[in-house]
Amino acid sequence: MEFMTWNFAMQAIDQIINSAAKTLYMSGGQMGSPIVFRGPNGAAARVAAQHSQDYAAWYASVPGLKVVQPFSAADAKGLLKTAIRDPNPVVFLENEILYGRAFDVPKLDDFTIPFGKARVWREGTDVTLVSWGIGMSHTLEAADELAKDGVSAEVIDLRTLRPLDMATVIESVKKTNRCVTVEEAWPVASLSDHIGSEIMREAFDHLDAPVLKCTGKDVPMPYAANLEKLALTSVKEVIDAVRAVTYR
Amino acid sequence: MAARRATKKQAAPKEELLKYYKDMLLIRRFEEKAGQLYGMGLIGGFCHLYIGQEAVVVGLESVAIEGDKRITTYRDHGHMLACGMDANGVMAELTGRIGGYSKGKGGSMHMFSKERDFYGGHGIVGANVPLGAGLAFSDMYKGNKNVTFTYFGDGAANQGQVYETYNMAELWKLPVIFVIENNQYAMGTSVKRATKSSSFWERGTAFSIPGEQVDGMDVLAVRAAGQKAVKHCRAGKGPYILEIMTYRYRGHSMSDPAKYRTRDEVQKIREERDAIEQVRGRLLDAGATEAELKAIDKDIKDVVNAAAEFAKESPEPDPSELWTDITVSA
Amino acid sequence: MATEILMPALSPTMEEGTLAKWLVKEGDTVSAGDIMAEIETDKATMEFEAVDDGIVGRILVAEGTESVKVNTPIAVIIEDGESADEIEAPAAPMAVPAVEEPASAPEAVAYAAPVQPAVDRSPDYPAGTEMVSTTVRDALRDAIAEEMRADETVFIMGEEVAEYQGAYKITQGILEEFGARRVIDTPIT
Hints:
The structure holds three protein chains of three kinds. The radius of gyration of chain A is 18 Å and the shape is globular. Helices cover about 35% and strands about 15% of the residues of chain A. Chain A folds into two domains: about 5-100, 3-Layer(aba) Sandwich (Rossmann fold); about 120-245, Rossmann fold. The model of chain A has no long low-confidence stretch (mean pLDDT about 95). By secondary structure, chain A is of the alpha/beta class. Chain A starts with 12 loop residues before the first helix and ends with a helix. Chain B is α/β, with parallel strands linked by helices. Helices cover about 45% and strands about 10% of the residues of chain B. Chain B has helices at about 15-40, 55-60, 75-80, 85-95, 130-140, 160-170, 190-195, 220-235, 265-275, 275-285, 290-315, and strands at about 5, 70, 120, 150-155, 175-180, 185, 190, 210-215, 240-245. The N and C termini of chain B lie far apart (about 45 Å). Chain C has two domains: about 5-85, CATH 2.40.50.100; about 135-185, no CATH class. Chain C has helices at about 135-150, 175-180, and strands at about 5, 15-20, 30, 35-40, 45-50, 55-60, 65-70, 75-80, 130-135, 155-160, 185. In chain C, the strands form three sheets. Chain C has a four-stranded antiparallel sheet with strand order 1-8-6-3, with no helix packed on it. A four-stranded antiparallel sheet of chain C has the order 5-4-2-7, with no helix packed on it. A two-stranded parallel sheet of chain C has the order 10-11. The longest helix of chain C is centred in the last third of the chain and has 15 residues, at about 135-150. The mean pLDDT of chain C is about 85. At the A-C interface, β1, α4, α5, β4 and α7 of A face β9, α1 and β10 of C.
């Protein structure tokens, strides 16, 4: 099931949440809804308030759904194949800006990636950067910049948001003692908030600084080019956040 | 393709009438018992009784074949009993016990049976209509001859998603029967106060879907209309609309004092048009005896009492059930 | 057999109510559906119907009584031929199953199904696998095509997925390979 964009899926959100996600539970396990709902999500470029929203946190909060937000082409392929085979409803959040971007994809007859398994893009020792989807672009770029200044960042791409691979994040934070999350969605009730609270619960004694988040701003998406840029998070914000938690 | 009204008076042999009598009476006695258990605090939350509307599902179920699907709203107990779901399992779901169809996790409004092709039990007005078209789509994709009965009320019939569904159903010739159970009140808002165009059966015309209005207090009229509708669907001609004129005797839910209509209005329909009484009269005309019918009444009371006992005795779900059936393992 | 009529719960939140008015008196014959009383709940005044046929043998709670707890016997219905004198003293209100509270407060609040956290940093594919530079768009299309080839029950529907080849060209060539039965344009809804 393709949505031209996830913005239009709000017209069908009752069926996604009230029907697809809840039927298995309401029927006591008798019947479910093996549908993949997929399409581009989040801001594209200059399409303004009604066409530029990241729904990751909305859908990731719903028990009964699985939620995937890939960054690379290999992950997009391996996770979409897993999604199609999954007997549960899967929300698959793509990104228009990433569609044209090329990555290395393994040449295998049947390449799949399991849900609930984060990918560690680079290993590091000073700070853990957690992101997903297009947030990964800023995060990887920031990590490169930081490396030039001698800050070693570990970069984790969550890839699936429900189930969420917190084990990999917690293990990393126990090593680096610092964490910054990067996402495109609004800051209030964001996935970053959830991840921060999980880290506090599981690794409080290991933290040397508060967990900081880089998110979209708490505003509807503006049209003007300069304002749109300001409304989104950026490489600079990620770098600034890392400097703050590493006290540099 | 002019939409038509069915007017011809139907007849049926005694054996057939007996079946309808039993099926309708089971629903009525079951619902009365459910009302009682609600009063005793054994059933909680929302509970929408089907009393008065029995002829609709019983008439339509009489034209269903194995593999046909049904999906409805939250006023769903009658649909479940009519399609052959077990009274014990339905009542135990009402009391929220493990012996219920959804292990106590669905309640009055959310019950399902894969075995009987009953797809719920939906609590959001109108939202089950696109789902019904989806079920019909699965039959079309698989290439079988089954149909889906998609029930909704006069309130839902004014919703936008219903017309989006009509459009797709006719576009793809989906084998779906849209059954509008017009009980004349959407909660407390009468049809007259909700729309200026109250002939719901005609509203398919804009999409080229045929429809007709049916006397929903006459089970044989419902059956006759159902026969026409399934014939149309099974022949691959696409959807069909039945607006079935019915009446609910009780309030919208248990906590509805029903101040929007007069007591006389309800009493008049009960006395003059009651679906069960009509069949009872036909049965007596066809040679059934009072003793015979009394014996049926007693059997049904026994079934309902046994269901109530089962629903009281069945344990509450184990706390571990909280965490099951959220997703299935791949 | 005499049947006790109990104070009913008439709303999801009602625990007690006022017996506002009796519409029947002792000795009256009632049939199922007849209004016996008016009861004020926390929400509204409700009519209370008889559920069975019989004779009002005794009224146990006078009209105007406030704060009548749910399940308190309020009247007794007898069958034809029975005497009201045989009615025994009313039983105590029937117990409603109480929700069980945990014996002691849990150490930590559990808000999700217990899972075994395990760190899995294994590679997604074997080392040395040949890599091909691919756009995200093509990777998505390949995934859809591969799964549709492998499983006949997989189909795709959406606005412009078929003849337009996808609004963002994710489904480029999918219609040509799999046909209109499995690649379905939906009208805008």
